[in-house]
Amino acid sequence: MAEIKILRSLFRIFHPRHLIYVTVPLLLSATLFSKELQTQTQGRKKIDLKHADDDYVERDKLTGKDWHRLLGNVFLIHKEISMKCDSAHYFPDKNQVIAFSRIHIEQGDTLDITGAYLFYDGTTEQAYMNDNVELVDKETHLFTNSIKYDVKNEIAQYTDSGRIINGKNKLTSHIGVYYVSQSLFHFKDSVKIVNPDYVMKADTMDYNTKTETAFFTGPSEMKGDSIYLYCEKGWYDTKNKTTRIWKNASIDNMKQLVKGDSIYYNDSTGYGESFGNTSIIDTANSIIVKGDYAWYFKMPERFMVTDSAMFIQVSRNDSLFLHADTIKAVTLSDSAGKEFRLMRAFYGCRFYSRDLQGKCDSLSYSTQDSAIRLFRKPVLWSAENQLTSDTMAIYTKNRKADRLELYYSAFVTSQVDSIRFNQIKGRTLTGHFKDNELYKINIDGNGESIYYLVDGDKIIGKNSAKCASIEILVSKGKIQQIVERQSPEGVIDPPAKPLSVNNRLDGFSWLDTLRPKKVLDIFK
């Protein structure tokens, strides 16, 4: 009876249903152990000797381990790389090779490294090669004296100067790291790119060999026949000739010098944009335009600046400062094919120079006739005189005001005291300047004037007149003489009573509160 119970118990244990629960964990454990063992074996995979004309086995007296002295057409393989050389020392126990003469390493079908001396550790997968080392990876060719190559991570490093050829670019630096899988070089110390069109220099640079794009860090510059670039951060696509730079960024395209917090430029099309603290400098015409945003073209030369836009016409004695919401400039040609610049400013224009100030809604400036034209309620101030009309034109010569023309409803006003004003009006007005100072005014058509006679600080009379034309002589900003021509009609009276209606000509206005009295006032 006891024997039957034992047999039944054994039957239950070895029943197929119970064997499944025992066998599956064992199989899983065996599989995991097998994979772990395989992984460890692969990590320690030995260098495999495929061929050598002569193989001399020698024993190391210190370690008692055998090593191989290989001669002639040596061929070794380790994992995915192959090594060829004229001779080598192979240490199986250390999994290391020292190779000599005509060494050639191949990794996959893209990377080749050649040199005259090699030390390779198969365990760490680190290769050290020197003596006329060359690395070739698709379109990239690196020349250096010595190199360290991390086979597993595909990273090559040199610290003893290197020269790279990639497309039309030749790059040199003292220190370099090449990330093969990313096609990316990291250069340091005296980095230089030589291209047929320019030379680029930087302290630190990354270079993508696929896109042929250089990334700058630190003071960097590029010099060429048609471009000069400086920045401390940015990139330049050498294939497509496009760039974006920032941090003390500036680009000179030999037509304009552009500065800004951030600049984009396409050297192929000549188009660029600048963002933040922007300035466009035209050295040929002594013009500077500033703002927080600009776009520009090199040929034909044109630009647009907005957001706190300011135009500066530089002069040694008296520069002109203009502010408007938007400033544009284009290059045009006259009937004879001669180029000239047309600049236009829109909305809320105010300008300041030491001798002349003004405001209007919009204006234009043409280098063809050197004329500034003011539109929509323009006002000019010259010394003590305020000039208004429907439209105006200021003609300049050698960057100085030469002649002023007021069209329709011309009006000249100057303040005598807190309630009295000299006033002269007519259909048109021509003002003449000498050394940027207004010295003579001619008014034609329907001339009228109110002029106060002054003896010292005392007002002794008021001259009211009407005539066809009036000539006014001005000295140091003050009206010195008024000459009425062609049938003048006028009277001289005692000083007018305060606020008398006869004290104002039709169309009178006094706008001194709008006058820019210093450069910053143009932004008010």
Structure notes:
By secondary structure, this protein is mainly β. It contains 2 helices and 34 strands. It has helices at residues 2-13, 16-43, and strands spanning 48-51, 54-59, 66-78, 81-91, 96-107, 111-121, 126-137, 140-150, 155-158, 162-166, 169-173, 175-179, 184-195, 198-208, 213-224, 228-237, 242-252, 257-266, 271-282, 287-297, 302-313, 320-333, 339-352, 357-366, 371-375, 379-382, 385-388, 391-397, 400-415, 421-434, 437-455, 458-475, 478-485, 489-493. The chain has a 34-stranded antiparallel β-sheet that branches.
Amino- and carboxy-terminal Cα gap: 117 Å
Remind me, CATH topology of one domain?
lipopolysaccharide transport protein A fold
The number of E-state strands comes to 34
Q: Would you state the CATH class of one domain?
A: Mainly Beta
Query: CATH architecture of one domain, please?
Result: Sandwich
Describe the largest sheet.
Answer: 34 strands, antiparallel
Cα shape: rod-shaped
Helix content: under 10%
